[in-house]
């Protein structure tokens, strides 16, 4: 999973629900550099749709992959521009 | 290769490649591209929050903090009971109404008994904690941190006999309906909660 990407940082939002996975992902992305990849680990099943929607509607980020692994939902978000 | 077959430049073709005109067109295209880019980035949303019960405090704050994560320009105009969400003391003590709430597991006659609102609020609070849902205070802090403009209606502040210092730091006071309408007119999304 995480070996597929050179992840710069991991954000743990397990146990947190809407809107926290998206809002905290945005904050974590703000602290990264262009080209960095953030791994977001969530337990909120709604995060699959929400993080995709957020990434589609936001400039400077790209959703690389989403993995549903047991009760965890893992998202790989690349910061593409400052 | 012979160039004999190339048609001689006509007057029309010369005009089409007039350097000054071409330059002007290039500038105009760049200008329009910038306008389009501005529109994409500049999504605006105005929410009017009129309700101050524990459950009704959540939707505007969740939408506002999420919209800020999209980079949108967000104003939440709090008026009437919605003002209590921004009031430091009241905000920590918002109540869920047990009466007239069809989702409550007790009939209205029992829900109307003294103390039932407190019981209903405690049950809801427990569910929120168990579900990992953020607290109202966390959502207010997040919203303010991410640049949401939380506005407290000045008329309601005076009507409720509140003081401007009663509100969380960062809350905008001294604004009224005209300010809210101005932002609504510029907004792509306007919601009344």
Automatic annotation (TrEMBL), chain A:
Domain of life: Archaea
Coiled coil residues, start to end: none
Domain UPF0033: 11-35
Family annotation (Pfam families): TusA
Family: Belongs to the sulfur carrier protein TusA family.
Name of the protein in question: UPF0033 domain-containing protein
Organism: Natrinema altunense
From TrEMBL, chain B:
Pfam families: DrsE_2 (PF13686)
Entries under InterPro entries matching the protein: DsrE2-like (IPR032836), DsrEFH-like (IPR027396)
Protein name: Peroxiredoxin family protein
Source species: Natrinema altunense (strain JCM 12890 / CGMCC 1.3731 / AJ2)
Origin organism lineage: Archaea, Methanobacteriati, Methanobacteriota, Stenosarchaea group, Halobacteria
């Amino acid at each position: 999973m995480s070996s597929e990407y050179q992840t710069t940082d991991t954000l743990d939002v397990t146990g947190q629900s809407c809107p926290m996975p998206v809002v905290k992902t945005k904050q974590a992305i703000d602290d990264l550099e262009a080209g960095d990849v953030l791994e977001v680990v969530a337990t909120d099943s709604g995060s699959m749709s929400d993080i995709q929607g957020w990434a589609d509607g936001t400039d400077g980020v790209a959703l690389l992959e989403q993995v549903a692994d047991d009760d965890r939902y893992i998202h790989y978000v690349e910061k593409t521009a400052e | 290769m012979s160039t004999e077959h190339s048609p001689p430049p006509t007057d029309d073709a010369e005009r089409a490649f007039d350097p000054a005109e071409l330059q002007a067109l290039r500038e105009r295209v760049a200008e329009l591209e910038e306008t389009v880019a501005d529109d994409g980035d500049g999504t605006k949303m105005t929410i009017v929050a009129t309700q101050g019960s524990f459950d009704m405090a959540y939707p505007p704050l969740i939408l506002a903090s999420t919209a800020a994560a999209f980079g949108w320009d967000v104003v939440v105009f709090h008026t009437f009971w919605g003002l209590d969400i921004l009031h430091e003391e009241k905000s920590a003590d918002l109540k869920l109404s047990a009466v007239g709430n069809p989702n409550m597991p007790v009939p209205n006659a029992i829900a109307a008994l003294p103390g039932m609102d407190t019981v209903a609020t405690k049950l809801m609070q427990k569910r929120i904690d168990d579900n990992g849902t953020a607290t109202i205070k966390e959502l207010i802090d997040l919203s303010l941190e991410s640049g949401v403009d939380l506005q407290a209606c000045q008329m309601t502040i005076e009507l409720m006999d509140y003081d401007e210092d009663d509100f969380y730091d960062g809350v905008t006071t001294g604004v009224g309906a005209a300010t809210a309408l101005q932002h609504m007119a510029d907004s792509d999304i306007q919601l009344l909660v």
